[in-house]
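Q: For a teaching session next week I want to show students how multiple molecules come together into a single three-dimensional assembly. I've collected the sequence lines for a complex. Could you give me the predicted C-alpha cells for the whole thing so I can convert them for display?
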Amino acid sequence: MENRHRARSAQDAAPGPPRHLYVHVPFCRARCDYCAFYSEPLTAEAYLDAYVEALLAEWRCEQARWGIGRLETVYLGGGTPSLLGELRLQRLLEPLQPQLTQHAEVTIETNPEDVTPTYANWVAHWRPKPRVSLGVQSFSARLRRELGRRGDVDPAVAYRRLRDAGVTNLSVDLIFAIPGQGVAEIEEELRRIGELQPEHVSWYELDIPEGGALERRLRGRRAPSTDVDGSAELYRRLVHGLERLGYHWYEVSNFARSGHQARHNVAYWRGQSYLGLGPAAVSTVGELRWTNEPDVRSYLAWAGQPTAASSSPERQWEELDEVVRARERLMLAARTGAAVELAAVAPALDSAALEPLAEAGFILLSGGKLRVARKGRYVANEVCVRLFRDFAF
Amino acid sequence: MTAQNQVRQDHIRNFSIIAHIDHGKSTLADRILELTGTVSPRDMKEQVLDKMDLERERGITIKAQAVRIIYTARDGDTYQLNLIDTPGHVDFTYEVSRSLAACEGAVLLVDASQGVEAQTVANAYLALENDLEIIPVLNKIDLPAANPAEAQLELHELTGATPEEIISVSAKTGAGVQEVLEAVVHRVPAPAGDPQGPPRALIFDSIYDQYRGVVAYVRVVDGQFSVREQIEMMGTGQRAEIEELGYFAPEMTAAATLSTGEVGYIITGVKDVAQVRVGDTITVAAPARRAKERLPGYRVVQPMVFCGLFPTEGDKYEELREALEKLALNDAALIYEPESSKALGFGFRCGFLGLLHMDIVRERLEREYGLELLATTPNVEYHVYLTNGEMVSVRNPADMPPEGHIVRIEEPYVEANILVPAEYVGAIMELCQGRRADFVTMQYLSPERVQMHYRLPLSEIVLDFFDQLKSRTKGYASLDYEIGEYRQSDLVKLDILLAGEPVDALSLIVPRDRAHARGKALVEKLRQVIPRQLFEVAVQAAIGSRVVARETVKAKRKDVLAKCYGGDITRKRKLLEKQKEGKKRMKQLGVVEVPQEAFLAVLQLDSGGKEK
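A: Of course. Below is the structure for the complete assembly, covering every listed component.
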C-alpha cells in the first residue's frame, strides 16, 4: 500500500513518463566466475515461460501507471536474455512493438553459444532492427578458460553468423586485465576487432568479486596484468588502439563508431528516467529510484496473483535529494566527458577544488560549464571525490 | 566507631606488592581481598583494585590504590593491613616510590616461570632505599613452566633472602596466600610514629572528583586527624576544614578519625589540585598542635617525552584543551602547552613520563572524551646552547634554532638495566651498539640470567627500542631505566618536504652521522604510506637546504570503475561517497593528501643496528 502511494505521488512530480526500458533476464546456464549481476542457474524450461509472462505483467502495470506511449530504447540484459530463445523473445517483445518507432534502439545481450542459425535469422528480421551486444569476453580461448567460461564456443563464429544473417548493429563485450593477458594479448584482441568491424565495443576491466570462485582460483598467484600499474597500462593501450581503429571513446568502458553510441546507456548517463522490469531491476523516475527484490520466486508469485495488474512486486525505494542528484550528475559526466552546468551540480560541488584540477588538466572550465578531460577520465573516481564537497552522513 | 578503628597501632601493617608487569600482582591482591572477606564473593571480579576500563583491558595498574584489610592471624589477634597497590611499568616508577614511602614492608612478587626481571630489580632497590622489609614471593608455582629453583637463586642474589624466607604461592588458586599474610603480620614492622605528637600525614596520591573536589590519599605518620578539624598543607600553606575522612574497604568508607600509622583519605572541598600536592605534609591548623617540620617529600616529576597532539577535526581544539585540563587534574606528570603547526593546525605539545604514559593519555582522550587525535613522533627535550650564550629548551623539533646559532646540543641520557637470558647477550650488545649506547657493566644473576647496564640517549629508547628488545630476545629481555644527566651529542634537524614544501610536523632531530641513513629510510617509508594521488609527489629529506634523500609517490594512472549502468548508479555513487569519507582521515597539505600514519612513520623504521 505504502509503495503504491509513494509511486503515485512521485508520478505527480515526475518530468514525464520514462522513455527507456530495461528488461532483466536473470538466468544463466552456469554462473561466470567474474559476474556480479543477479542471476539464477537455469532449472526448468517451463520456468522461463512463466518468467516472460511475469515480465509482461509488470510491463502492463507500469505502462498504465506512467502512461507510457512511446519508448526510445529497450535493453534486454542479464543474466542471459538470449537463453530465452527466439520464441520467448518474440513473445516478450511483441507487446512492446506498438510503443516502438522504426528509430527505436532495441538491444539484446546475446551469448555466443545461443547464436543458432534460427536465432540469428530471427534477430535479423525483427523490426525495428535490433542491436546485438555479443558477450565475447575475449577472442582467445585460453583467456576465456582463465575466466572460467563454460560451454565455450568461438565467439567469432557467432559474430559472423549474426552479421551474415543481416544484423547491422553489433557490439562486442570484452574484458581486460585477465590473468595472463599482457600487451601482446591486447594487441591481438584489437586485431580481431579490426577484422570483424563491430559498430560498438564495450571493454571492461575484470572485476574480481570478493569471495567468488575467481578470487579463490587466483589467490596466491602472481598476475601482473591485474596489478594497478599493469592494468592501467593495458587500459591505455586499448583506448589508443580502438581510437586508431576509428572508435570514439565516449564513456570509460565504451567505444563506438560515429552514430552508434548505445543510446540506452547514454540515457542513464544523462540522468534521464528509465524503467526496469524483473527481479533486481532498477528504475529511476525523477527523484525516485526503486529496485525490485532480487528474488525470482517471489516475483513469479506476485505475477500469479489476481491483483498483479494494480500492485507492484516487492521493492526497495530510494529518494534522490538535490545533493545526491547533483553528485550523480557529476559522477556520470566524469565518465563520459560530457559538459555539465556548474550551477546544476553546485549542491555537490566544492568550488575550491576546481582551480587546481583545471590547472593540472584533469578538468576543463568554460562558459559556466565543467567537463572532465580525457586525462581525468582515467582517474574519474579520484576527480569526482576531489570535486565533491564535504558532507556528513 | 567501627571495629576497624579500634585496632592498636602495633597491630597495623602497611605494605605494597611490587612486581614486574604480568607477574600476577593484581591477581594476588584479588586473592588477598577474597581470603580476608574484604570483598564479598558477589562483588568479586578480576583486578578489583583497577577501576579504569583501560587498566582492566591492558591488565596494568595506572593509578595507585589503597585498601584496608582486616585479618585475624593464626596467633588469634586481629590486624589492620593496608595494602597499597602500585603500578608496574617503568613509566610509573615515581608512583611506586610514592606508594612505598607510605609503607613499612613490600611483597616482592616474582613469576616462577619468568624469574627476576628488570622491574623486579628496580622495585627491589626502591624498597631497599625506603628501608622496607622485603617479603620475597614466588608466584605461579603451579605452572608446568615454573622453575622455582632457578627463580629462588635469582631472588637470593637480589635480596639476600634464604630459601626458607621465600614463600611459594599460586595467586590463581590461592595456594600459599595465607602464608603471605602471616609473613606481613610477623615480618613487617608496625608503624613507628608518635601517636601523641603533632599530627602529620603524607599525601602519597590524589584524585580529583568532580563533585567533592580533591581527594587526598594519606598515610598518617604522627598523631591523629578528626573530621571537621582545620588543617594546613604545609608546602602550599593552604588551609581547609576536613569535610570527610576515612579509608578504602575498598570503596571509600567514612570514619571519625585517622590515627597514627593508618592509611586513608581526606576530603576538604578544595577544588584546586595544585593546592593539595602529592608529597606534601598535612598537619592541623591549631597553633598548639601544629607540626613544625614537614615530612620528606618526593622529587617533582618531570615529563621526559613530548609529542604534538592535534584534533583531526580543526574545530575540536577547545574540546581538546578542556579534556587535557581534566586529565591533568589526576595526572601530575602530564603537561601541555599550545602548539601551532603549519601542517596540522592548532594543538598541544604534551609532555609525558614515557611512551606508555603517552599512549594511555592519548587513548583516554579518544575514549573518554570522544576526540580523534593525530599524534606526532615523540621526542625528548633538548638543551640547545646558542652563540649568544643563552640556553633554550627545545621540546619540538620544529623549534630547533638554525645551525649557525648553535654552539652545542645536549640530550638526556638514561641508565638502563636490561635483564636477559645469557644466550641473548650478543643480541642486546648488537642492539645497543646501534643506539649510541655506552656499555657500563654486566653481571650474572645466575648462570642463566644476566643483568646488563648501559648508558644511552633517551631519544633512542623513545623510538622502538623496547619493541626491538623484545623481538630480538623472543620476549625474554626486560628493561628498566632511570633518567641520568644531559650530555652533549652531535645532532641535526632533519626536515621532510612533500612536493617541495617542508612539513613542520615531520621534522625530527637525529645524530648527524645517521642523518643520511635515517632520511633515506624515512622517505622510503613515507613513499609507502602516502597513497598515490592525482599528482606525482616528491618526498624529500633535507638538512638545512641540502636534500639528502628523495623518493617519488607516483601519480595514480587509473582510478575508475568499469561499469556504471542503470542498476549500478546508487552503488557506484556510494562507493565514491565512501572514498570521499576516507579522505577525512587524511591531512591536506597543499595539494598532497597525507594519511595520519605518516606522522608516526619514523616509529616504524628499523632504526637500530642495521643502518649503515
